[in-house]
Specification:
By secondary structure, the chain is an alpha/beta fold. It has a domain of about 170 residues: Fe-only Hydrogenase (Larger Subunit), Chain L, domain 3, CATH 3.40.950.10. It is built from 14 helices and ten strands. Strands 2-1-4-7 form a four-stranded parallel β-sheet, sandwiched between helices. β1, α2 and β2 form a beta-alpha-beta unit. The protein is globular and about 60 Å long. It starts with 15 loop residues before the first helix and ends with a helix. Bound molecules: iron/sulfur cluster. Iron/sulfur cluster (SF4) binds next to α4 and α6. GO terms for molecular function: 2 iron, 2 sulfur cluster binding; 4 iron, 4 sulfur cluster binding; ferredoxin hydrogenase activity; iron ion binding. Keywords: 2Fe-2S, 4Fe-4S, Iron, Iron-sulfur, Metal-binding, Oxidoreductase, Repeat.
Length: about 400
C-alpha cells in the first residue's frame, strides 16, 4: 500500500482497528483492499454536516482512494453473490417442500446479520438448521478477494489485507470467527465502522464535501440495485425475491419494486405471487421482533416460507457503527429513502444480471451451490447455549 494522505497522529489511536488499517496501508509488502457496505454511503455524509439521506457513494470512494487503499471495492458485489447462493437455497428448499419432502425445513431465515446469527445461536440453538447457510456479504467478499482476486493479482492470500467499512459493530466480531479463517489468516482482516472511517478522513485532513466523485474499482466493485437495498430492513428479502422469482418461474420480472415489503414497522408480512404460487414473506427488525417470529416457528405456527431478520431497528442503516441518530426514526427514514433512490438509479437491479457475478461463476465457481461455492460461500452455526451450560 502507498499512503498519500494519512498522518498517523495520536488521534488515530482511539480505536485499535483504525490504527491497524493505517499500518497496513503504509506497509509496502501488503496489497490493501477495502470493501464498503451499502448502508455506509447513506449515512457517512452526516458525519460531515450533510443532511441525513445525502448519498455520498462517489465521495466515499474518492476519500478511500486518497487514504491510500490499493483497491476500493463494494460489499454490494458480494451482496449480489449472497443473493445468488441464498436465492438458490430458497428455491431448493421450496421445490423439495412442494414435492412433498417432509424433511425440508421452512421457513428459511436470512443469515447476513451477525448480530442476529449470534442471537439465534444463543437462544434458539435447536433451530440452527433453519437459517440459510449463505455467509454474509462481508465474509463472501473476503473469501472471494483472497482466492479469485488473489489469483488474478498473482499474489498469495497472506499478501492481501482485506478491510471492511461497516455500519455495524457486530461485523468486527464476525470477522474473528474461526470458521472465517484459513490457517489462521482471516478472510476479512479488519472491520471499521462508518464513524471510524469518518475519523480517518478527518485525520487525513480531507475536505470531504469538496471531493470529486470517483467510481469503485473492478471486478469486485460492480453491483446492482438489488444489493444496495441490503442496507435497509426488507431489502435483503426483496433482492432475493427479484432473483428467485425469475429462477423459479423462468419468466421476466417486469416490476422489480416490491413496495409491500418496504416500511419501518417492526414486523411486516406480505404474500408475493410466484406465477400462481403464493409465497409468504416475513420481515422483522430488532431482536425483540425477531424473537416473536421465532417462537411461532418453534410452536409450529409459522405461516412463512422465508423470513428476513436484522438485529438493528431499521436494518443496517440504523447500525451501531453509524453516525448517531439517537433513536430518531425520521433520520432512519431519510437514510432508507437514499438507499431506495440509489437502487432506482442503477441500470441493473437484479443480482443475477450483474455481469461480473456471471463472470465469477463462469470462470471460478461454476454455479450456485456448487462444491466450490459451498467451500467458499457457505458456513455452519454453533449451539452456544449448550456450550455455555456445559462451561458452567
Ligand atoms: Fe450489523 Fe445491525 Fe446490520 Fe445486523 S442489522 S448486520 S447488527 S448493522
Amino acid at each position: 500500500g502507498q499512503c498519500v494522505a494519512v498522518c498517523p497522529t495520536a488521534a488515530l489511536t482511539e480505536r485499535d482497528s483504525t490504527w491497524k488499517v493505517v499500518e497496513a496501508i503504509v506497509n509496502p509488502q501488503k496489497t490493501v483492499i477495502v470493501q464498503t457496505a451499502p448502508a455506509v454511503r447513506a449515512a457517512l455524509g452526516e458525519a460531515f454536516g450533510m443532511e441525513p439521506g445525502t448519498l455520498v457513494t462517489g465521495k466515499m470512494v474518492a476519500a478511500l482512494k486518497k487514504l491510500g487503499f490499493d483497491y476500493v471495492f463494494d460489499t454490494d458485489f458480494a451482496a449480489d453473490l449472497t443473493i445468488m447462493e441464498e436465492g438458490a437455497e430458497i428455491l431448493d428448499r421450496l421445490s423439495r417442500h412442494l414435492n412433498g419432502d417432509k424433511e425440508v425445513k421452512l421457513p428459511i431465515l436470512t443469515s447476513c446479520c451477525p448480530g442476529w446469527v449470534k442471537f439465534f445461536e444463543h437462544h434458539f440453538p435447536e433451530m440452527i438448521d433453519i437459517p440459510s447457510t449463505a455467509k454474509s456479504p462481508q465474509q463472501m467478499f473476503g473469501a472471494i478477494a483472497k482466492s479469485y482476486f488473489a489469483q488474478q493479482l498473482k499474489k498469495k492470500r497472506e499478501d492481501l489485507v482485506v478491510v471492511s467499512v461497516m455500519p455495524c459493530l457486530a461485523k468486527k466480531y464476525e470477522c474473528t470467527r474461526e470458521e472465517f479463517q484459513v490457517n489462521g489468516d482471516p478472510d476479512v482482516n479488519l472491520s471499521i465502522s462508518t464513524r471510524e472511517l469518518a475519523n480517518l478522513i478527518r485525520n487525513a485532513n480531507l475536505d470531504f464535501g469538496k471531493l470529486t466523485d470517483e467510481d469503485f474499482d473492478h471486478p469486485l466493485g460492480e453491483s446492482t440495485g438489488a444489493s444496495v437495498i441490503f442496507g435497509t430492513t426488507g431489502g435483503v428479502i426483496e433482492a432475493a425475491i427479484r432473483s428467485a422469482y425469475e429462477m423459479f418461474t423462468e419468466k421476466k420480472l417486469e416490476k422489480v419494486d416490491f413496495l409491500e415489503l418496504r416500511g419501518m414497522e417492526g414486523i411486516r408480512k406480505a404474500t408475493v405471487d410466484f406465477d400462481g404460487l403464493p409465497i409468504n414473506i416475513g420481515i422483522a427488525h430488532g431482536l425483540g421482533n425477531a424473537r416473536k417470529l421465532l417462537e411461532d416457528i418453534k410452536a409450529g405456527k409459522s405461516e412463512f416460507h422465508a423470513i428476513e431478520i436484522m438485529a438493528c431497528p431499521g436494518g443496517c442503516i440504523g447500525g451501531g457503527g453509524q453516525p448517531y441518530h439517537h433513536g430518531d426514526v425520521e433520520i432512519l427514514k431519510k437514510r432508507q429513502k437514499a438507499i431506495y433512490a440509489e437502487d432506482a438509479g442503477k441500470p441493473i437491479r437484479k443480482s443475477h444480471e450483474n455481469p461480473y457475478i456471471q463472470k465469477l461463476y463462469k470462470e471460478f465457481l461454476g454455479k450456485p451451490l456448487s462444491d466450490k461455492s459451498h467451500e467458499l460461500l457457505h458456513t455452519h452455526y454453533f449451539d452456544r447455549k449448550s456450550k455455555i451450560e456445559v462451561n458452567h
